Amino acid sequence: MIRIDGATKAGSGTILRLAVALSTLLGDELHIWNIRARRDKPGLRPQHLQVLLACAQMCDGTAEGAEVGSKEIVYRPGKRIRGDVYRWDIGTAGSTTMLATALLLVACFADRPSALEMSGGLFQDFAPSAHHMQYVLLPTLAKMGVNASIEIKRPGYVPKGNGLIVMKVEPVTRISPLALTEQGQVSRIAGISLSSHLNKEKVSQRMATECQRRLAAKHYESNIELLHDSQASQKGAALSVWAETHTGCLIGADRAGRPGRSSEEIGRFVAQHLLEDLNTGATVDRHLADQLIPYCALAHGTSRYIIPQNTEHVETNLWLVREITGARAELDGKCILIDGIGYQRRGS
């Protein structure tokens, strides 16, 4: 049985999500206590509970302590991961993209293709942006042999949520290692400036204009698409940009809107974060830095990439994959080095 103290390192929901996903793949029972012990509202929140329940559904597993607020769970994965058409609704503005990143790892090793329909929040602080996942994470994982796509059916924001995405995943037998050791020159910068029910206020234009102005000051041209949505349950906005380099690196930055946060502030924030990560010479952005770790831990071979900065999430994910998979995973300066365990789909 895998035993994890959820108060270790960041003490965040990342531990629960990643541990449950890896447990599902390895077929090992999992016991976690002190779940989200370092957060203002410790224990399972709806979005974390949905990860647990969804993983259990995909593999016919069982879970004790599967309720909102629970600080301890025992998870027993089933013998086979079933690809299928699934639908899950978090029921709040909890991050649908965090649910999606956990289930992507599992669906990669299902017995057949999966179509996962997920509803909740898509654009908010302290969670991956759906556009970052669509245009940065998934294309980077494609270099490792992962074949997945995301379609945003309806944006969702805090506090109502009700966003909708569909993620399609083709199963793989194995994952290739990732080698990104040189940033290279920026070949293009693209982005999406999205606003819902805010066309009259010109929010999409204002976010994009300010971001482009800041990037141009550093001699970077950018092409940011303007999207004006009327399907979301409430007003909201989000800006995402990403830079592609001639060595194949994708480095992104994003920011969600919220009451009191101006369009210009969002544009400045996104441009600044993109420039900061580019200026470090990193080959991934601050979000990819930790998101790629579990895939590299499962890969057949050694992965190397350069991160812009160390974070709690990087340290937590490196620790967790060492604990659960036994992979050699370390940070040497700003270079992440991971010797994958050569995982193959169970029964293959």
Identify the notable features of this structure and list them briefly:
alpha/beta; globular; 348 residues; 31% helix; Dihydrodipicolinate Reductase, domain 2; 4-stranded mixed β-sheet; UDP-n-acetylglucosamine1-carboxyvinyl-transferase, Chain; 16 strands
Structural topology:
Elements: E1 2-5, H1 13-26, E2 30-33, H2 46-59, E3 62-64, E4 72-76, E5 85-89, H3 96-107, E6 114-120, H4 130-142, E7 147-154, E8 163-170, E9 179-180, E10 186-196, H5 203-216, E11 223-229, E12 236-245, E13 250-256, H6 263-279, H7 288-291, H8 293-298, E14 302-306, H9 312-325, E15 328-332, E16 335-339
Parallel strand pairs: 1-2, 5-6, 9-14, 10-11
Antiparallel strand pairs: 2-4, 3-4, 6-8, 7-8, 10-12, 12-13, 14-16, 15-16
Helix pairs in contact: 1-2, 1-3, 1-9, 2-3, 5-6
CATH class value of the domain at 182-279: Alpha Beta
Sheet with most strands: 4 strands, mixed
Query: What name is given to the CATH topology of the domain at 182-279?
Result: Dihydrodipicolinate Reductase, domain 2
Unreliable parts:
none
Number of beta-strand segments:
16
Spatial arrangement of strands, main beta sheet:
1-2-4-3
Strand fraction equals 25-35%
Q: Shape, please?
A: globular
Structural class: alpha/beta
What is the architecture of the domain at 182-279 at the second tier of CATH? 2-Layer Sandwich
Task: Give me the strand/helix succession.
Answer: EHEHEEEHEHEEEEHEEEHHHEHEE
Radius of gyration: 19 Å
Description:
The protein has helices spanning 13-26, 46-59, 96-107, 130-142, 203-216, 263-279, 288-291, 293-298, 312-325; strands at 2-5, 30-33, 62-64, 72-76, 85-89, 114-120, 147-154, 163-170, 179-180, 186-196, 223-229, 236-245, 250-256, 302-306, 328-332, 335-339. By secondary structure, it is of the alpha/beta class. Among the domains are: 83-173, RNA 3'-terminal phosphate cyclase domain (UDP-n-acetylglucosamine1-carboxyvinyl-transferase, Chain), CATH 3.65.10.20; 182-279, RNA 3'-terminal phosphate cyclase, insert domain (Dihydrodipicolinate Reductase, domain 2). The strands form four sheets. Strands 1-2-4-3 form a four-stranded mixed beta sheet, covered by helices on one side. The protein has a four-stranded mixed beta sheet with strand order 5-6-8-7, with helices on one face. Strands 9-14-16-15 form a four-stranded mixed beta sheet. A hairpin with a 2-residue loop joins strand 15 (328-332) and strand 16 (335-339). The longest helix is centred in the last third of the chain and has 17 residues, at 263-279. The chain is globular.
